[in-house]
């Protein structure tokens, strides 16, 4: 079956080779007409011109009806079909909550322009790939809160990601609080697969819930936690203090990430720990998580065909009948 345009397909496209007969028939008609013509030499044809009527003007164009009639019949022989395609998609989405550290250390400039901005952009790219999943957003610093509950409206999630900035919460790094907030959002989830992606660049130093306690709760709720430590190895240009007007003062500081804790959280819940030292490695981490947590989909396709050859055949026959009637009744000639 060969598709020529849109949803119109032709079962027998080889029938279009018959269109080559049209110019051959035209040549035959022209040569036959010349043989039948007779010539008379006269000195002045002005009186004959006055005898012209609509019949004499229309008659030379009569063969065009036969050409179109033949063309439509050939199209009908090619058997055009209109393809009506239906798809039924059954997708079992995954519930994913991203837990983002927005403490002041996320303004460190070992990522360009800073850790927070890069983390937001890469997270948005990840959201775009998860078409059928519900995604939520939790943020934490010295405390935590849910920025966006689980939703399939990914535009809203990305808008909230865009709006994240340091200083929204009391400064500090409450990893346990951030994870607990995310797990709390998962307790009412009916999804067979629940995932938390926790991103931080520091050491737990705030909050009243210990990270491992939150991990145990995640384990009980069968929630898998992927942890990401963000920051270069060694030192980075980071906020070291703050002016009275709220602006940060930057200086070189050691990058301290509690990798052992993050790895333990991941292992307890069946997840995995990653270390991102630049934007490229962070993108690779999210890409790997995307591959590990595939959404189960079942797609059933239905194809229906509407036979369209009848309309072309009718047009061809109608034009043929008009041509025949004109020749017999109007022009009084044999077909």
Q: What does this protein structure show overall?
A:
By secondary structure, this protein is α/β, with parallel strands linked by helices. It has 2 domains: 2-85 and 302-330, no CATH class; 94-294, 3-Layer(aba) Sandwich (Rossmann fold). Helix content is 40%, strand content 26%. The chain is built from 11 helices and 12 strands. Strand 4 (95-101), helix 5 and strand 5 form a beta-alpha-beta unit. The two termini are 37 Å apart.
| CATH structural fold name of the largest domain | Rossmann fold
Please identify which CATH superfamily of the largest domain we are dealing with.
von Willebrand factor, type A domain
Number of strands: 12
Q: How many structural domains in the coordinates?
A: 2
Order of helices and strands: EEHHHHEEHEEHHEHEEEHEHEH
What is the helix fraction of residues, given as a range?
Answer: 40-55%
- Beta-strand level of the residues, as a percent range? 25-35%
Shape, principal axes of CA atoms = elongated
- Span of the ends, CA to CA: 37 Å
CATH class of the largest domain: Alpha Beta
Per DSSP, the total helix count is: 11
Which architecture of the largest domain does the CATH hierarchy give at level 2? 3-Layer(aba) Sandwich
Radius of gyration: 38 Å
């Amino acid at each position: 079956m060969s598709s020529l345009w849109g949803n119109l397909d032709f079962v027998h496209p080889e029938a279009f080779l018959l269109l080559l007969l049209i110019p051959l028939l035209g040549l035959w008609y022209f040569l036959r007409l010349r043989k039948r013509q007779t010539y008379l030499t006269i000195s002045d044809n002005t009186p004959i011109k006055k005898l012209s009527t609509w019949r004499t003007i229309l008659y030379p164009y009569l063969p065009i009806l036969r050409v179109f009639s033949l063309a439509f019949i050939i199209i009908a022989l090619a058997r055009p079909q209109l393809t009506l395609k239906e798809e039924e998609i059954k997708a079992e989405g995954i519930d994913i909550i991203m837990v983002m550290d927005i403490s002041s250390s996320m303004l460190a400039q070992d990522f360009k322009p800073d850790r927070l901005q890069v983390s937001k952009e890469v997270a948005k790219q990840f959201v775009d790939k998860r078409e059928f999943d519900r995604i939520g957003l939790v943020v934490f610093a010295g405390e935590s809160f849910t920025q966006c509950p689980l939703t399939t409206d990914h535009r809203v999630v990305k808008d909230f990601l865009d709006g994240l900035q340091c200083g929204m919460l009391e400064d500090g790094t409450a990893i346990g609080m951030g994870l607990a907030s995310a797990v709390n959002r998962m307790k009412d989830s009916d999804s067979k697969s629940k995932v938390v992606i926790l991103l931080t660049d520091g050491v737990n130093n705030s909050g009243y819930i210990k990270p491992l306690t939150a991990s145990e709760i995640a384990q009980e709720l069968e929630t898998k936690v992927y942890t990401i430590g963000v920051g270069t190895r060694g030192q980075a240009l980071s906020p070291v203090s703050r002016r009275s007007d709220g602006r940060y003062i930057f200086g070189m500081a050691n990058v301290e990430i509690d990798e052992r804790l993050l790895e333990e959280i991941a292992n307890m819940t069946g997840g995995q720990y990653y270390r991102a030292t630049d934007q490229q490695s962070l993108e690779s981490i999210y890409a790997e998580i995307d591959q590990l947590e595939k959404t189960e989909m079942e797609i059933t396709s239905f194809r229906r065909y509407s036979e369209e050859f009848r309309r072309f055949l009718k047009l061809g026959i109608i034009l043929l009948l008009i041509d025949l009637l004109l020749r017999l009744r109007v022009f009084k000639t044999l077909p």
